[in-house]
Each structure stands twice: as structure tokens, then as C-alpha cells.
Amino acid sequence: MPTVDIYNADGKVVGSMDLNENVFGVAVRPDVMHEVVVNYLANQRQGTQSTKTRTEVRGGGIKPWRQKGTGRARQGSIRAPQWVGGGVALGPKPRDYRYTLNKKVRRLALKSALSSKVEENELIVLDSFSCDEIKTKKVVELLKNLNVNEKALIVLPENDKNTVLSARNIKGVATTYVGAINTYEVLKYTKCIILKDAVTKLEEVYA
């Protein structure tokens, strides 16, 4: 069972915590994490790119020159794909890139990502943290006290608007909460700062 230190907002160790090995101590599966990340990125695509075919390009209704006798190759329309300004052959059209993965696969990928953070000592458990007002300086001080200079993801037990807005302007820092956490974000950021209450909720949901 993995054990980690618990820090306060001043960066001091105030205790330790045993993590559930079914969530934070599973065998890391890079193949499953890769599959889920590719799925996540595909689902983010808008799929609105579009090109015009020869039937959609304006003009070209008349044959540019007669079929025979000119010495040139026969042409039927100046909007054929080989012409400058012509239609695009086999170009992209609006489509939906979304596809689904099994729930068990998504859960395993998230647990693998969290376990990899524990193995690499990139997981920091915080006893408590909240912002009474929108104050970026407070989050900056927290990161400084925890000696976090890398890209960091702050995981909250629930959506806290003040904390989210306070951290929004800090480059390389993002916030999420237990109900919205995903494998891509956990892997994208080097450090994972997770509140103690969020750890408990994750263990309740994913254990």
C-alpha cells in the first residue's frame, strides 16, 4: 500500500496517508493510457474543416475549348481538380471524430496515470486549500511553498470557482475536480497536487 506525506499550504509535512492500492498502486499500463489519450484528443476535434468539390466551386459551366483540333489536352471544365481554382479531389468534409471506449478501459487508464505519479514521486497530497476570494497570489504562494516549478495540475474535491479563477492566469497550472478528472490532464502535467478530500473521493469512486 503506497504511503505519501501530507503537506499544508505552507509546504510543511503535517502527516502521512496510506493510499488505496486499487487506485494509486495498480500496475501501470502505458498501452491503455495511450488508447484513452488518443480517444480524448479525437473527441476534442470539432470536425468542421471542409473543402469544395468540383460541383461546389463557382463557375466552370462552359467547356474551355473544343474537344479536338487545338493540340491541347481535352478539358471539360476549368473547375476540374487539376485546374488552379478548381475543386478539391477527396478533400475533407465535416465529420464527427468522436468514438467511445469501454468504461473499464477509461477507469484503468486513470488509475494507471495516478499510480505512475505515485511511482515517480510526482503526487503531492495537500491537507486543505481554498480561496475565499479570487486571488492569484495565493495560488502562486502555494506553489512556491511546495517548491513546484513544473507544470502542475491541482485536483479539488469539487468544483471551486474561486480557486479555479485564481489559478487560471498562471502559466502551466490547471485545475480540475474529482468529477471531471481525466487521464490526459493527469499525464499532461508533471506535478499532481491533490487535496486530501479529493483522494478520499477518488478512492470511493474508483476503488
From TrEMBL:
Transmembrane segments: none annotated. Gene3D superfamilies: 3.40.1370.10. GO terms for biological process: translation. Keywords: Ribonucleoprotein, Ribosomal protein, RNA-binding, rRNA-binding. Residues 47-76 are annotated as: Disordered. The keyword Ribosomal protein applies. The keyword Amino-acid biosynthesis does not apply. It holds the Pfam family Ribosomal_L4. One of its GO terms (cellular component) is ribonucleoprotein complex. GO terms for molecular function: rRNA binding; structural constituent of ribosome. Belongs to the universal ribosomal protein uL4 family. HAMAP family: Ribosomal_uL4_B (MF_01328_B). Part of the 50S ribosomal subunit. Forms part of the polypeptide exit tunnel. This is Large ribosomal subunit protein uL4. It comes from Ructibacterium gallinarum. The lineage of its organism: Bacteria, Bacillati, Bacillota, Clostridia, Eubacteriales.
